[in-house]
Amino acid sequence: MDFNGSDTIPGPRAEDQLPHTAQSAVKIVIVGGFGVGKTTMVGSVSEIKPLTTEETMTQAGIGVDDNYGSASKTATTVAMDFGRIKITDELVLYLFGTPGQERFWFLWNGLFEGALGAVVLVDTRRLEVSFDVMGRLEERGVPFVVAVNSFPDAPRHPIADLRAALDLSEMIPIVDCDVRRRASSRDVLMTLMRFLHSLAMTGSLT
Question: Which residues form a coiled coil (predicted)?
């Protein structure tokens, strides 16, 4: 019995149900340092109500978490964010946003399992926090694109300079984005899908 006295168990909301035309589902992870916009990206682009595991930041994080550039941030992801977007009638992406603080990175291994690709969100005020993120993806063989999130006070650099600073090969796409805008976040995902397709065509995607 449910709370309304019915013998039926309520199912998912109509808007949350997987499209009946879907034939393929791909797991994508969205990674980056603390406060770069991972939760915002998942929330802006997801076609279903996103699942978040945000908790209020406490005194315990002082001196432990690097919140440079995010001093006004009052909540943080402690496990993952989850969303879903339909790219075509047949293709659906499942989006998993990772926690940004280094003390929660032990959760990343599970989130990376089965991921076909990744988006690395970058804040140009804190490029150095991206090195470990990209290194972990490379260790696990997860292809990725780099998305430079727009912050009002963040310096802007030519793509060539960013590529050199991040020590990225010419083949890895770097794009500008504003994760608050659904269209911009979707463009990032489409860039990733095109990149994965190109790797598959050359036999580089295993």
Answer: none
